[in-house]
Amino acid sequence: MRLTYFGKIGDGNTSLLRNAGLAGLLTRSSTRKANLVNAGQMAEHRGWNVAEAHEKRSIHTDSIRLEVETDAGVTVVEGVVLLDKPRLIQVDGIHCEITLPAS
Length: 103
Description:
Layout: E1 2-6, H1 15-29, H2 39-45, E2 51-55, E3 63-70, E4 73-82, E5 85-91, E6 94-99
Parallel strand pairs: 1-2
Antiparallel strand pairs: 1-3, 3-4, 4-5, 5-6
């Protein structure tokens, strides 16, 4: 899994963002409940490689890109928070704008 933080969002401590991404992935692939506290340990136990990158970008607001590589291939999604709502703005290179549930 690789997280890329664009804009000012990457200037601070990103450990909660990383763990939230891990928890989301782990919850869908595990019978054990993943959360912000145990997600890093669960990913490490499974042998997952987790990388983070911080890049400046001037074309739009802060965003986070999540890339997941499995035996089936690579899936890439990118999201932002606009007007206080989380939105998906790209899936595998296809631009979109989909409002996501907050929780």
